[in-house]
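Our consortium's second objective concerns turning raw sequence data into structural hypotheses that experimental partners can test. To show how far this objective has progressed, the report includes one record in full. It was chosen at random from the queue rather than selected for favorable results. The single chain below, 45 residues long, was entered without modification.
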Amino acid sequence: LLREQVEYLRQKLYGKSSEKVVHQPGQLSLFGEESLPEEEADLPS
């Protein structure tokens, strides 16, 4: 019974539902291309 409770709580704590992505307006994305400022694209190489 104790092992079942531990497993249940572990799944509740570390399960898929604990990883929620909330997009904040104005917050840049760390991995997305949309996070690059447009000014950098206009610079000559």
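The partners drew two points from this record. DSSP finds two helices and no strands in the chain. The longest helix spans residues 2-14. Both points have been shared with the crystallography group to help prioritize constructs.
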